Amino acid sequence: MKLYLPALTLLLFLASACGRKYEPIAYGKDACAHCKMTIMDKRFSAEIVNPKGRVFKFDDIACLRGFDIEPGSLLFVNDYSGKAAGPLLAEKAVFLHHESFKSPMAGNFPAFADEAAATALKDSLGLDFLTWEKLP
Amino acid sequence: MTILRTILIFLLLPMGLSATVIRTGPDSLLQHALDRARPGDTVIVAPGHYLQHEIVIRTPITLIGENFPVFDGENKYQLFVITASGVCVQGITVQNTGRSSMVDMAGIRLQNAARVRVSNCKVLNTTYGIYLQNSKYCVIENNEIRSSATDELQAGNGVHAWKSDSLLIRDNNISGHRDGIYFEFVTGSAIIGNVSTNNVRYGLHFMFSHNDGYSRNTFRHNGAGVAVMYSKKVIMTGNTFSEHWGDASYGILLKDISDSRIEHNTFARNTMGVYMEGSSRIHIARNTFSANGWAMRVQASCEGNTIETNNFLDNSFDVATNGTLMLNAWRNNYWDKYEGYDLNRDGTGDVPYHPVSVYSILSERIPSTMILYRSFLTNIVDQAEKIMPSIIPDQLRDDSPQTKKWKL
């Protein structure tokens, strides 16, 4: 009996931690948690799932970065090219940065699944690849 | 008088002599006629259906359509690109532009141009209707800009202005886009007398645009009426905001705005009339708020705003806020929920009015309590709180509420 309770709590904790996942964004309905704009653009939308499982949705990666991110949160970004099957983890995605992308909040950071997906755009605009840590 | 006429004739004569009129029809390429034209010429386009696209106007000419000739982009191309200054386009129909994720396809695009006038045109079913890029002193007036944003994620804006200055957007009828009118990095411009309805996101949207104004416009049934964000010195007068219902729906959404004026507007039947966050030094006066869910929602991050001489009628909640600190001035408003008295009959109530009800505080913290709204218990709590305020922010009050409605 003594062992049950901690074991049960641990199990529940693990279950909730595993259960944390990307919640689909209702485009045209959900509002950005940071700038309050209605999220419309699939190419730049992003999401935070915090350690407790609470979901915050954003219309621009710049909004996500402006948000107070709890340590241990899952950070999702969407693939700019729309070719990836689902959302990408921000730490693993590849980014570009250029004014001509015109994202909703002028962050202008498109995200890509890997370097191959972004190469054409990178070359045509003469940019460098960026990672999550290196975003300006 | 005769001298004046002579001078006038002499002034006009050179123009009349040098300018020629070029006529063109569906059988010939308009681009050829445009390339042949010299500055000051007039190109008249005969009625018909033109399957021509990416038409570039490089010289300052006047393009007139007879009986709305139709330029069709076949859902693949963009139609007119104006790169010269001093161009005038009127009376044409452009329709069915393509959609692309990299290029913003537009019905009529102005690129690095000045003094361009687009008037009396029909822009139908386009991704971006009229697109102004790095343009100055342009006039967009009396156009019918309609689309049906069924694929709302790819939809563009009706009138889209980017990095422009001194524009006049007047008397257009815009519907069915993402944003009716969109301003990004646009300064010193005016938006007057437009009707913007049924747009998916906003009727009008400002981003990083300073010293602009919009007056006498009607915003109805959009995702939200107007969003003014990260801008300074925006003047908003005489507009009507109505029928904006939904979770993230506002008459006006103000986010990080300062030194602006909101006057003589009507907010009717919106989920929220005015939502403000991080905004300062805004003068909100002589507006009518009627039958909204929340007339105003003023977040605690706002300061130095003055809210005076407004009418608040039939709103479920007059004011909501998310903190106890209140650094704004509320005075001389008419509140239909005011139950005080006026013994000396000077038109000003003798006891202050607290526009934030207990329930608006409760629903701010626990949204699901709305289920008990308008119940008997709620009324008792409301009455008790009016006598002895404990939950409601007691700094947020109107010390001089009016007992008579303002005639606005």
UniProtKB/TrEMBL annotation, chain A:
Keywords: Signal. Residues 1-17 form the signal peptide. It holds the Pfam family NosL. This is Nitrous oxide reductase accessory protein NosL. PANTHER family: HTH-TYPE TRANSCRIPTIONAL REPRESSOR YCNK. It comes from the Bacteria.
Automatic annotation (TrEMBL), chain B:
Keywords: Repeat, Ubl conjugation pathway. SUPFAM superfamilies: Pectin lyase-like. Coiled coil: none annotated. InterPro entries: Beta_helix (IPR039448), Carb-bd_sugar_hydrolysis-dom (IPR006633), NosD_copper_fam (IPR026464), NosD_dom (IPR007742), Para_beta_helix_rpt-2 (IPR022441), PbH1 (IPR006626), Pectin_lyas_fold (IPR012334), Pectin_lyase_fold/virulence (IPR011050). Residues 37-184 form the Carbohydrate-binding/sugar hydrolysis domain. Pfam families: Beta_helix (PF13229), NosD (PF05048). The keyword RNA-binding does not apply. It comes from the Bacteria. Pathway: Protein modification; protein ubiquitination. This is Nitrous oxide reductase family maturation protein NosD.
